[in-house]
Amino acid sequence: MEADYAIIGGSIVGLSIAWGLLKRGRRVLVLDGDDGSFRASRGNFGLVWVQGKGLKQPAYARWTQKSAAAWADFSAELGESTGYNLALQQAGGYDFYFDEESLEQRVAEFETLKKELGGDYPFEVLRHNELKREEPNIGPRVAGAILHHQDGHLNPLRLLKSLADDVRRMGGTVKCGVPVKRISKRDLFEIEAEDGTIYAAPKFVLSAGLGAMDLGPQLGFSAPIRPQRGQVLITEKLPKMMNRPSGIIRQVDEGSVQIGDSKEEVGLDDRVTLETASAIAARAVAVYPDLAKAKLVRSWGALRIMSPDGFPIYQESSTTPGAFLVTCHSGITLAAAHARYLPAWLDGSDQAPNLEVFSEQRFAIS
Amino acid sequence: MTEVDLVIVGAGPAGMSAAVTAAEIGLSVLLLDEQPAAGGQIYRNVAKADETRGDILGKDYTYGLELVTAMRSASITHVTDATVWKIGEDGTVAYSVNGKASLVQGRKVILATGALERPVPIPGWTLPGVMTAGAAQILLKQSGLVAERAVICGSGPLIYLIAQQMIRAGKPPLAIIETQTKSDLLNAMRHLPHALRGWRYLMKGAKLLSEIKRAGVMRVTGAENLEIEGDTEVRAIAFTHRGQTTRIQCNLVLLHQGVVPNTQATRSLRLEHAWSSAQRCFHPITNEWGLSSLETVYVAGDGAGIGGAKAAEQAGAISALHVAFALGFITKADRDKRAAPILRLQSAELALRPFLDRAYPPSDQVLKPADDTVICRCEEVTAGDIRAYARLGCTGPNQAKAFGRSGMGPCQGRYCGLTVTELLSQETGTTPDAVGSYHIRPPLKPITLGELATLEQTLTDETKGLI
Amino acid sequence: MNNASPFHNISPSDDLVTVTFDGIEYILPDGANLAASLLEAGLRYFRNTPVSGAPRGPFCMMGACYDCLVEIDGETRQACMTEVTSGLKIERAHRDKGLEND
Ligand SMILES: Cc1cc2nc3c(=O)[nH]c(=O)nc-3n(C[C@H](O)[C@H](O)[C@H](O)COP(=O)(O)OP(=O)(O)OC[C@H]3O[C@@H](n4cnc5c(N)ncnc54)[C@H](O)[C@@H]3O)c2cc1C
Ligand code: FES
Questions:
Q1: Which atom of ligand 1 lies closest to the CA of A37?
Q2: Which domain holds residue C73?
Q3: How far is the CA of A15 from the centre of ligand 1 (A)?
């Protein structure tokens, strides 16, 4: 099979890129791991989230905003061709606070970023009573919230399914259950799967999530990423009880309430622990006391793909040009940008966004 | 946190005998079960059942009383109504009683959580009035209820037992519609010489069948294309037999396609599992003592592989002996001496299994459900959906779950897991072992967020204490 | 509604209490299994599915299938794992979904 690009890793990041490349008329081959691989794309929180991103790196805030702004159109296009409703809602989102002091502190940080962004950072502060008007089920312990109008959420599993569907529909080849073990460069890139099959393509994108830790160095990437565990709880389906999502609680379109999520440095361990699960449950019940009676039906731990500063890495290999490393934490939020803008960068087109700040060089110790 | 030598989850034959054996040796034992009384599924409510019930259910049921009594006399803490919802690799067990969560630390844990009935995805199996044959039996044992105007369908010896009990209670089933065929029986015959060691059971089976015949209950084998009819509840069941379609009006349909290990707890601990092609199900891998791939955890009874009540009872004792040895209560020689006679009995007990597995295989219809049949009862996902996800690149159940929500509902995949594995195995042309199964994570049973939240205090207090 | 019970009780109890199910009073044996007692009282359908609103009733009677879910005091519970006590106010779980479909 002839492909212009081989894409290693067929979850949200890989498939978003494949989708965008197909739209540009490129032929793609996507190679994905097996059922048990670590997949942040299956365990994430489904937020399309702007607030708090890039506080110390306005370029990341801008890239996030650019993606958030592209989302409505991207989701409509995906929905139209696949028939799936991604349940995208971008009517703002909250960050809750139990005490005034931390709220004020955050507001100050947001003001600074807002200035750097030329004012494009639409947020407001809701004190308890104002918040109660928006969210009648909020509990008495909540002092207030920041409502950021560029935030939203969607159904991430339906996004994954739509992309898997649409990439195939547009003629992309997707092979699942073929973990890649080696990549080498002759005339073409030769990609060897665990079963010994070799796939070849002139260009390739490494978007294998945590899989890039092993594969990256084979092509001269440093791929300085690490896993960071997030535990998530999910309740039975409940009648509608919240209007907007927050960074830690949201009600999904099917009715369940999703509660997250911890940030734990525990290596490649995606287990659920009582300490963390009970702590995030307690926090959720403090925000929405009615949740105390809701049944928890599932929980899971998922591993975030973190770079040292938390921002994405977009890097073309300096030793073997034509090889690209794409990895990020907020793959749902950034999916629209990855589908709409990143392919031009991979193609080396003049319309490509300037992604220099996201190169691996920023981690080089000088 | 309370600490005990041994935590046992499940108070069926395996759990009870493990508890008795361990306690006699001097171990402190905490036995947890979500039912209000000891007995498990087989001896459900045996301590309270009156004589009428005892007569209908027979000696094999009332035998359970001995076990329950033995357990009472020993120094065992049996917590009833205790739902275990998280088990840690280190032996911590979280459980809830009446909405209150507690933690216990066991030096060892024996999982004796038994079996589930195999899912029976056929058209109409979600209608009110369709139950498992096991459910009908539980209703009889626990509540004295006998189904009236019921049809029993499927495959497996349990069908004859429940039919006989209904006959004795004066409410014979309208019909017994079996899916196994004559050729299944012929295939099974080659296991017969070995099976003769289990002659008591063969005799019992023959007796059941003759009782059913004498009662004049209609019985069909080799039935195909079962379909339960009704819009808001069961009205009838239809099936074909030698090309002829028959329809029977009825109130209740009792389904059965054999039982399979309940692997929720063992999966949640990420123990190693293997696929049994003879029983068409997964089971945790255990050694002859029931020790799993994790040093702290043993699996005894049907949860480790289907062997029946007596074999489970023996397995419980054997695991308990190994625990006692591992914790230094008895010597190796003592352990082996005590175990030898039990092991001998157990091997005789298991002699009939290969014959039964062959004679009563799950039907093709449930292993390869039609596209429009619901296979995930909770999220209402069909077999056709799963096949479509396979075409979208799902090589295993976890991606299929992400795509279509099968296994995400409150039953957490108990009644769709095996079907999804079978379907994906057929679609991708790989073995069920390679396809794998759902990842199971806590809570093993839904609990309220409030319950979980209250543990936070306990946990932080204890951690503080440690520092 | 068809209230003819498809079950016969071979050892009925006479220690009875009153509960309500969707507002209707039922006299059930005290301390008995709730799912069994409701079945005996002629009820078949205990809940609607939150997906399509389809009616469901007890299937496994051993706490595994969750098709016997009912709502008691704002909490969904498995009827087959609950004991009858005097004054229980029971409602069909997800009945709102059922109504949408009627
Ligand atoms: C708890 C949590 C909450 C999150 N919440 C949000 C959120 O609200 N909003 C948001 O925007 N983002 C969120 N994220 C991040 C988002 O889920 C990830 O950014 C995104 O899924 C990453 O996608 P990926 O394809 O790079 O990696 P993954 O989804 O991890 O997938 C990696 C893929 O690579 C394949 N692979 C790995 N190794 C190999 C190999 N050797 N050969 C072939 N294939 C291989 C795997 O099989 C897999 O399919 C969250 C993440 C977590 C963990
Ligand atoms: S009937 Fe299956 S859980 Fe109650």
A1: 47
A2: 16-96
A3: 11
